[in-house]
Amino acid sequence: MRRPVPPAVPRAVPRAVLRVAAGAAITTPIMAAIAVLTGQPLVFPSLGPTAYLLFATPTQPAASPRNTLSGHLVGVLSGAAGLAAFGLWHTPADIEHMTWARAGAATLALTLTCGGMVWTGWAHPPAGATTLIVALGILRTPMQLLDVLVGVFVLTAFGAMFNRLTGIAYPLWAPIQANRPPVAAEEPPAAPARRSEPAA
Question: Structure pTM?
Fold first, then answer.
């Protein structure tokens, strides 16, 4: 018996590919230039997946400004909690030599980030990378943590402008789905009334 062949994943149309690529090609050098001029670490690894969400899936809840900004905030605070809990505020990063304290900080940070995003409803997967950047000590000083949030804000702002200019209904804050009223179909349908049988 032959197994059914799964349907092929549809490829994006060339226009969509160009739009997504153009968003990254325009936004990245602008942010890099700002980082060079200010001398601040405004470009860091977790901005990569955030940029993909903003340009490739702009109408998904995870790409909304609320989830993007709030998710990274949860990640930064959780990473800071990991540093504080294991006394690593002033310990420079050394990802080639993991210590028990650093492992504990990373575990606590990622646990708080994952749980915090689910609890708040601010799901933004790239924030999981942000919290590890902080917990591993790559960016750990108060000024650097502020730079992380500034970098996320700048990327989100440019992403919003780009999406709107290219005709995408990008939300101004909360996800579009969250603004819709509950669907009436979620309520169980009423049982049909039975007809009374005529008396014999």
Answer: 0.82
